[in-house]
Amino acid sequence: MSGFRVVLWKELIDLSRDYKTIAYVVLMPLIILPAVALFIGGLYSVQTIRVAVVDLDGGEGAEVFISYLEEELDGLAGVRVELLVAGSLEEAQGSHVVIVIPEGFTEALASLDGVAVLEVSRQAGVVAAEQAVQAVLRAASRLESQVAVLRVEELAVLAGVEVDPRGLLNPLEVKFAYHTAGGAPAGAEAPAAAVTARILIFSLFFVVNPALVFMSDAIVGERERRTIEKLLLAPASLRDILLGKAAASVVLSTGAAVADSIALVAFFAISGVGLTLAAPVLASWLASVVLLVFMTTAMAAVVAARSESIRSAQAGSALLMIIAIIVFSSALAVDYASLPTPVQTLLQVIPFTHAALAVYYAALGDILRSTIHVAIQALLSAALALAAARLVDEERLVLVR
Amino acid sequence: MSVREGEVLVLAGLNGAGKSTTVRVLLGLLKPEGGTVRVLGVEPGGRGWDVAKRFIGYLPEDAQPYARLTGYENLLFFARLYASSEDEAREMVERAADMSGLPREALSRRAGGYSKGMKRRLLLAATLMHRPRLAVLDEPTSGVDVVSSFRIRRLIASLRGAGTTFIITSHELRGVEEVADRVAFIHEGRVVFEGSVGEALDRFSASSLEEAFVRAVGGLA
N or C: which end of chain A has fewer CB within 10 A? Predict the structure, then answer.
């Protein structure tokens, strides 16, 4: 019977019954990542931020400001705010944000050229307090605009001219839009699509891990059990044995990788990042997932079979993992196209980079480049598989030191 | 050193004497530094070796069955590698199940939970189920209990009668003396004696193979 199919059958049963490894590699990220997002998001939202306004003015200006502040604080997402209007600083003690409206605040606002002052103090290191401060600034800005309009109208009456206060106050209007790398207009969903692409590239890291784990186990585990010698003496060629093991690893790793990647996307979605999936991005990501599994499996086969001890095989796999982490996590912040050419060239020596670039260019709308990097991955997978077949020999598989 | 068809050759040596290395070289798993090897008329790893391998059964020292596969699945895996059809593979599995002497209920359980003796019997059955012309058994009874050791020796004796040639390595000579036709004593990487069991006893004025071996390696000097 076909040695390849028989080995594949055995490996699929053997690896799929390795429940602990599957739990570590697949289920834990699948459960833990969304759970962490829910947990962190949940904890954040049940925090209470105390904001105190010490109104020493007591005038109409202070009243308007406080009403604006209440509206802005009500609109804060994901955090609970407790607003206290205090008569003195002592009453405001223990608050995360303290706003003092000094005496004369309303009077300064009411005069034609007075400068009203708001004193805002926040407790350092409290993330949600920063959110509250942003609300304070928005409330202040609304009041400021309103007072400025009133002052312009008053000046216009004094000068006997007719003016549009809004035009006078905002003589320059900035209009924002998005465009693609090619210069074509992009919709308002473009930033979310770009963030999605970065997250998808980062999620490719989860592809590398299962492929390394399953392939290393398939070879090193066989060595440890000393069954590799028996297998090599059976009527299956070394090529069939390696291909059977690699195919099983690819099947399980692809499943694990897709599950883990979904978990990561769920993590970000639950965390509040708006995810937008475009068809070319999804297609390039799926192609990269499958090809990355092939590439990593071939690399793991070479590392495991050429290592002279189990420890060195583990060290080799760990090194590949570190390289993968560097490449895929850099996608969260780095814009590849903006890198200097020598750096880009250097990065492309690393096979993992092409998986990242395929998704990156698809997100930019550059389908040609995306396809080129998918093709490079296919070529590298074939080359690495050939290298694995050539570099692995029976003597190395047998000898465990 | 040569092994004739249908005989049982026991390779005896102290730990680290080179028994397992010799076996690995014989089977093409390691390349020899010098000399020539021919097994079933073929150079291991050379032309015709893939065909010759079909007629060889090999039980490595300390080999373990696949722990997450049942006993049956372990047998079926190796059977499928040797068989040309699924029916033939199932036949082999039935034969191997009988050879192993393991209860059917045990064979339906995962092999990881077997005792050392059960594991050894399972792997021995997997080694012999395709009725090899040459069976190479590296320490087949090492570490197993008396009953398993007895069963293993009885299986070897029955297959020798059916024409299978055996090369057995062992450092426990009392166990294999009854099945051995010829012995080769290996000491520090060299064959220091090769001949029939009777010749070994005469040559070293010994009453048992174990005593002959001890004298051969200077253990009584």
Answer: C
- Confidence band, pLDDT 50/70/90 cuts, at residue A306: confident
Tell me how far apart the alpha carbons of residues A297 and A291 are, in angstroms, rounded to a whole number: 10
Which residues partner with A86 through β-bridges?
A: A54
B33 — contact with chain A (CB < 8 Å)? no
Domain count, chain B: 1
Residue type, A295: M
Total Cβ atoms within 10 A of residue A284: 27
Answer whether B28 sits within 8 Å of A9, measured CB to CB: no
3-state secondary structure of A288: helix
Would the CB atoms of B31 and A395 count as touching at under 8 Å?
yes
Residue entry with tokens 């590439």: A295
Q: How many CB atoms lie within 10 A of CB A209?
A: 23
Which domain covers residue B137, as residue numbers?
A: 8-216
What is the Cα–Cα distance from A376 to A289, expressed in whole angstroms?
A: 14
Q: Is B153 a domain residue?
A: yes
Q: Are A209 and A21 in contact (CB under 8 A)?
A: no
Q: Which among A10, A225, A229 is the nearest to B77, CB-wise?
A: A10
Closest CA relative to residue A109, chosen from A167, A68, A165, A149: A149
Contact criterion met (CB below 8 Å) for A400 and A220 = no
Which tens digits make up the pLDDT trace of A43-73? 777 788 899 999 999 999 999 999 999 999 9
- Check residues A36 and B154 and name the one with the higher pLDDT: B154
Alpha-carbon distance of B72 to A238, in angstroms, equals: 24
Contact B63 A225 (CB under 8 A): yes
Name the token pair of B19: 């028994």
Q: What is the mean pLDDT of residues B61-85?
A: 92
- Note whether B50 contacts A: Cβ–Cβ < 8 A: yes
Residue B58 pLDDT: 92
Ordered domains of chain A (ranges, CATH): 47-174 (3.40.190), 190-398 (no CATH)
In a domain, residue B133? The reply is yes
Burial zone of B77 (CB within 10 Å; 0-12 exposed, 13-18 middle, 19+ buried): buried
Question: Alpha-carbon distance B123 to B60, whole Å?
Answer: 9
B3 within domain boundaries: no
Task: Kindly state whether residue B186 falls inside one of the protein's structural domains.
Answer: yes
